[in-house]
Amino acid sequence: MILLSTVIETFEADLLGHYQDSLLPSHRQALAAMKHCRTSQSPVMLAKCDDCDSQRFVPHSCGHRNCPHCQSHESQQWLERQLQRQVPAEYFLVTFTLPKELRALAWQQQRTLYSLMTRCSWETLKTFTQNDPQLKGNAGAITVLHTHSRRLDYHPHVHCVIPAAAIDTEKRLWRTKRGKKGQDKKQTGYLFNHKALAKVFRAKLLEAITQAGLDLPHRYPEKWVVDVKSVGSGDKALVYLGRYLYKGVIQEKDIVACRDGQVTFCYQDSKTRQMRTRTLPGAQFLWLILRHVLPKGFRRARNFGFLHPNSKRLIGLLQYLHGLNPNRALAWLRKRPVLTCACCGGEMRIVKTRILPILRSQTMPAGQPG
């Protein structure tokens, strides 16, 4: 497996030479963090075994949300929180895509455009839920912003996981939506018409951009793209979204070659589902990765409506009344692995963190194994 830190070490100078004027402070911070993550230059933690008193150093992760090494635990915690909020309804994955004509504006005004995309996606779904004859109530949704395609090109879009359900607060009713019957008279999942969603999303986002004082491009398409897909109980869709929530846009196992100034990575074609490879100069590959570093402090994932954390008691009541046990969905999740002692196999605990490499010899007691 080719480490991303190795790729950065090899091509960082070329990257700075070619993209010096395009790199933002957030890009440089991400680059520095991933370059030293779990290497000999990174800080370490001191772990101690309570059974045999042996100690050893454990490399620190950099903790950056774009690093493929880091934040597996945070990603799992997010997934657990979402699964605990499951409600008795069919779930749908709705994807709102920004047209390519507006991508330049999004890149120049990332914090503003990303926020507007998320807000308008939610407001579109909220409007449709309130107006739907079967639902007629308040919606709930989980939104996750992605900025990349499978090829890692710049492609901003918002994924929304939404149950086909609504709460009527005035009448205190829980309503779910029934699917549509096809020609074979079988019930199929149906939420909203994707063309109607795209039309409303387009109007809301264009108005929001104008109100924000930003200039729209001279030309942009009349028809936008919104995809609506049934995802059953929502488990698999949440796992997919959680995969890219904290651990960057590429896994190191997908970097298949790094030689002759080129980097090759593999990806799954979204149309054919076939695995393909893409080869780029090393500096361009790193730039491709860094383009998807979000502005500092920007929240990629958000919860709205009755799926907001403030609705914990309401969701608990719904689960109780409908006999839904959220712990069943959590049962298959892997627990965080414990650190075991190489001498006796006992469980080790961290006793000191953020130890600089030059202080290792001063920290480790004499006679203890490193």
Relative strand content:
15-25%
Biggest β-sheet: strands ordered side by side in the sheet: 10-3-5-4-14
What is the count of DSSP helices, taking H or I runs of 4+ residues?
A: 11
Arithmetic mean of pLDDT:
89
Q: Please give the share of residues in helix.
A: 25-40%
Q: How far do the termini sit from each other?
A: 26 Å
User: Number of domains in the coordinates?
Assistant: 2
Main sheet summary: 5 strands, antiparallel
H/E element sequence: HHEEHEHHEEEEEEHEHEEEHEHHEH
Computed over alpha carbons, the radius of gyration is 24 Å
User: What is the assembly state of the chains in this entry?
Assistant: single chain
What structural class do the secondary elements suggest? alpha+beta
Number of strands: 15
Q: Categorize the overall geometry.
A: globular
Q: Any low-confidence stretches, pLDDT <50, length ≥5?
A: 366-370
Q: How would you sum up this structure, described in words?
A:
By secondary structure, this protein is an alpha+beta fold. The protein folds into two domains: 4-64 and 335-363, no CATH class; 87-245 and 300-323, no CATH class. The chain is built from eleven helices and 15 strands. The strands form five sheets. A five-stranded antiparallel sheet has the order 10-3-5-4-14, sandwiched between helices. It has a three-stranded antiparallel sheet with strand order 2-1-15, with no helix packed on it. Strands 11-12-13 form a three-stranded antiparallel sheet. β4 (140-148) and β5 (154-163) form a beta hairpin. α1 (4-19) crosses α8, α3 (72-84) runs antiparallel to α7 (235-243) and α5 crosses α6 (194-211). The two termini are 26 Å apart.
